[in-house]
Every structure is written in C-alpha cells, then in structure tokens.
Amino acid sequence: MNTRTILIAMLVAACCAPILTRGAQPPGTTATVVRLPAPVEALDPRPLAPIAASSDPAFRPKRTPGELSDRVVSYTMQATLDPSPGVKSVTGKQRLTWRNPSDAPVGELQFHLYLNAFRDRESTFMRESGGKLRGDIMPEDGWGNIEVTSMATAAGEDLLPRLEFIQPDDGNVEDRTVARVPLTTPVAPGQTIELDMSFVSKLPKIFARTGHAGNFFFVGQWYPKLGVYEPKGMRGRTDSGWNCHQFHANSEFYADFGVYDVELTVPENFTVGATGALLGGRPSPDGGVTYHYRQADVHDFAWTADDNFVTGERTVSIEGASDVKVTALVQAEHAATLERHLDASEKSLRWFHANIGPYPYETLTCVDPQEDGDGAGGMEYPTLITAGIATTSEGTLPEVDDPLLEIVIFHEFAHQYWYGMVASNEFEEPWMDEGITSYSEDLGLPDLWPAKRSAYVAYGGVNVLCLPFENPALAEFSRFAAQRSVVRRGPLINQSWGYKGAYGYGVNAYPRPAIALQSLRILVGDETMRRILRTYFDRWKFGHPTSQDFFDVASEVSGRDLQWYFDQAFRSDRLLDYGVQSVETREQQDTVDVILERVGDAVFPIDARVTRADGSMETLSWDGRSAQRVFTIARLPAVQRVDVYPNGSPRLDAFATNDTWTERTDRAGPARLATDCGLLFEHLTLLLLGAF
Questions:
Q1: Are 270 and 298 in contact (CB under 8 A)?
Q2: Half-sphere exposure of 246 (CA within 13 A, CB side)
Q3: Within this chain, do residues 562 and 576 fall inside the same structural domain, yes or no?
Q4: Residue 364 maps to a domain
Q5: Domain carrying residue 374
Q6: Under 8 Å between Cβ of 496 and 433
Q7: How many domains does the chain divide into?
Q8: What is the 3-state secondary structure (H, E, C) of 234-252?
C-alpha cells in the first residue's frame, strides 16, 4: 500500500514533536511485569470485537519436499498488451487448475474480477471511495473493466452461461467484482478441476494500484482470480465455504498459493518486469516480443511494461541462502537513482534475512512508476514492488538526504514477508499485513540508514531546509494513533470495509497496530519480541493465519499469557493512560506518598521506578486495576524522580506528559496543552493531505 502521503504528513506534523514528551526513557528490555489476576472484562463488561479463532493445527502450513506451499491452485496464462490510444487493454487466456482442499464436495467456484471496481461509479469500490483514494482521483475518461469471454471445463463443458455476479458483503447489485459459477459435477475432496478461460481486461487510467499512464503500464489484479475455499477448521472456520469478498475502497487481497506460468506479449520496444523468474523471450508473429515468466509458491502475479524504463541489475549473495537477482526498472529521467533503488532493495533483503527469515525466491524487481502513474507507486506483489520518485531533477536525487525512497522500498519489501509469505486475509484482518509491516519499519530503518536521521524538506532534487529534529519516518511511529479521538472510533480489529471511512481504515491498519506492537515489545523485552516475530514467520509462512494465531505465538514465546493485552489493544476501544498524580512529602511521618493513577480505562501492569538523590532506585509494582494507588515510602534519601514506565513509555499510552515526575519542575499542565495542540495539528495535516 502507498505510504508516501502518510510519511509526508507525519514529517510536517513532527514540527510539534520536541514539545510532546517529557522525561521519556529509551526503550530496552523490561523488568518482569505483574501477572493480571483476573480477566479485564471484570472491570469493563463491554464486549470485545469478534475475531476468528485459532487455526486448527491441521491447517498449519504443510510443505511437500521441493515445494514451499500447498499449491492449491495453478495458472498457465498467455496475455497480450495492446498499448494503442483508446484501447489500453490486455487480452488473455488461462488454464486454471484447482484442487479441493476440504473433505466435502464443492459444487461451485467463486472468482474475483477486481477490475470491475473501475467500470462505473456504481461499483462498491467507487461508492465507498467517491472516486478518490489517497489523494488520487479517478479520471472521468479513465474507466476500466474485465470481461470473461469464455469459460469451459477441460472436457469442453461451457460454463460461461452459468456465471453470475454476487455481492456477499453489501448486496450492491451494481457491483461485479465477485462471480460464482455452479458446476454440473461437484469437485470431490482432494480432486482437481481444470478450466479454460479467456478474458479481456481494459485497464483504467492508473488509479488504486493498477492501470496505465501514457505508455507506462502497471498490471495488477488483472485476470479472473479464484477465491479461497476454506475447509472447516481453517482460520477458525466452523464450516467450510468460499472466502471471496467484493473489492472495497479500503481492502486489499487474499488468495491461495500456487504456481504461475505466464507468457506476456508486448511491443518490441517495451521493457517488462513481472512476478517470478524470466525464463526467456521470443519474437511474436505480430512483431512484438513474448516473455515467459514462472513462479511457484506465490498467491498472485502482477507485471509492468514501459517504453521508458532504464534497467539496473545486481546479484545479492547471502551465506546460507540462494542468490537473488535484484532488478530496478526506473524511468529514464530518474536514471541517476538506479543505484539507490538497488541499494535499498539489497539492504532490505539482507535485513529481513538476518532478522526475520530467509527470502526464498530467486528474483526481486523494484519499479519506478511514471510521474503521472503515481497511483501505482508504493505497492507490493510477490517478488515485484513499486516505489516512486517525487521529483524529476536528474543528477541531484542521489544526494538528497531525506530517505523517502528508501523508506518506501523497505516498506514494500517488508510486504514480501507479511503479505507475500505470511498470507493473512487482508479483507478481514488488515492489520496483520500493514501493521506488522509498519512495525518492521520501526525495527529496520534505523539499522539500515542511521546517517539519514534528520528531517529534510526537498524540492527539485535539492535539500531546501534541514529541520532540527529527527525524521519521524525513521523514528518510532507517531503517538497520534493512541489518542482518544482515534481509539474511541472502535477496536483496531475490524473488516477493512467496517471502519469509519478511509481515515479509520488507515489509522487502524498502519500506525495503531504498529504502536501496539511497540508497546508489546516494551512489555516483553526486545529479544523476546524478536523471537516472537521470527517464530510467527517461521510457523506461518505459506499459510493463512488469524489474529489469534499471532496472539498465541506471542504468549507461547514469551512464556506468559498475553491474551489480556491483545484483548485490550486490538479488540477494544479502551484508552491506555497511566501517570504520576502527585508526590507528597509528609515530614512528620518522615515518609513520601507517591500516587499513581489510571486515567484511561485500559489496564496495564506497572513497575514504576523511584530514583533518589543518592542514585538508589526502588520499584513500585502495581497491577494497574484501581483508579489510583498510593505508595508510602521513606522520605530519605530525597526522591528526585518517579517514572511510571522506566523502560520506555508504551506507544499506546495516550499521554506521555504525565509519565514522569521530577523534583525540580512539574510541567504537566503546559505539556498536556502542547500535546493536545500538536496532535490536533497532526490530525488536520493527515486529513488535508488525504493520507487516510
């Protein structure tokens, strides 16, 4: 998903950052926390957001020797691009093979026809988006669609007359992004069906990840794509059935793993990039060139073609892993950035190999969209990502210190793991991809680009102004997602179309889960959090986990039951806010009363730290359940400082300004006002720039 606008907005909003915190401590390994003695619902009986149960262990990824995934589906495709003005279409054929993974016969197939989201203003996508998405506007002359022109079984039975459009999510009869096809003979358990299909995909002017801009084509979600048939027990299902949602303004994708064998025919002056490895090319009868790509163990196939690309290549060798051929396809006017594209791709690949797990594919292609095609920028598909350059000043861009290009490339490469291999359902649980990807930025970017810490304003390829604070895109995610105005909008976990508008989706898919995971890291410690991510990836790569599967891994690896945390941070609208209410000296009793308070309604165990004048420290442990807790301690040596979160304030804590008391001054009032003003400015900036 495109993160550029979000990052720019956060950069502007960061002008208020220096006044937002007081007494914050650097994150590190936490002390042992208090185990909560009873369910949080005992304090707040409001129901939690429903989520899918843990997957049945039988549906953890199974791997046949020589295969990474279960390969439920395969596509053998031939497609021809016609870039002519007024046409801009792809004509295709595909042999689709699908295996019934359940223990019951399946009597119909369901397909995604994503491009029909752009056929007119009555599709669910257009009704929900109003023709606007992240600052892009659907042009009036830019409509596109997909038409299935034939469909038959391998035995020759014509199925096209049976195809009918369905609307399982909203009942919008004008929406044609999902179709069902009843079968004469159901597919028996473990058996396969083969279909021969032909289709024509008229590409829209680039909008929402796909389409054309001049002779630049980014072809995503362009073919009839089978939904996922989920057997009972998979992803916590109580009965078997198709999971095939309509294309919504804020939804992304979910599909089975399989094998793609694709031939793409384009004019001979076009350069092509695609999912998978290029096996070869040959002249086509009409004067073009046909390129042959193949990739196994992926759940989608996308490609790009342009007559303006310049190409850079690099082979990345990592000990203990197969070599990866990295390719950068960059607009000619951006040729000076080829090395930046390649460097960022290589650094991202190496970081994830070292910190999360091996990258199993032989190729990675990074695409620079044409300037008019920015709607395709910042997007991910298996082995194929897009970035985007904000300026066209040749020769100066490599010297720009603001690392926005590197940030986008790292983010999109991270999707190769959390979207590509850990193939969660982005329709129903979007945080599992975008949120974990955003959290990965917090971990990886400071490691990879430590010299590019300052925030810059760049124009025309030149740094116009260096701002006197850290670039927020390389720092921990903004705290605005923990504020009351965000949290009270509803639980973090929801269907992608169930949030209140694009803003609700954006904040709950990106920064809110990222800061929830940062808070988890403070709770369990840095090393344990690293093991949680590595274990989760290793267990669920080439699978389809649920939120509860992630929660279960976290509890298992940490050795403690963390469900209380996930119920509050992910499944409720409870606000986290603890603070030091006061520190009162009672000279006659020779004691000091340290009063801690729970301002919000979320419950979090507290190990506050008291620092005295002689440097000694003591810990005040509190289960955090009551409205406040009074600790009476010795008066001497004098108390100089009290920290509610001595190991770093959880990003989910709504206000950092009350986390610390110091003897010399107590600026909580002015600091709270500054926080409120800064966060208001940040919200307005995000909304005005169309980030969400």
A1: no
A2: 25
A3: yes
A4: yes
A5: 308-475
A6: no
A7: 3
A8: HHHCCCCEEECCCCCCCCC
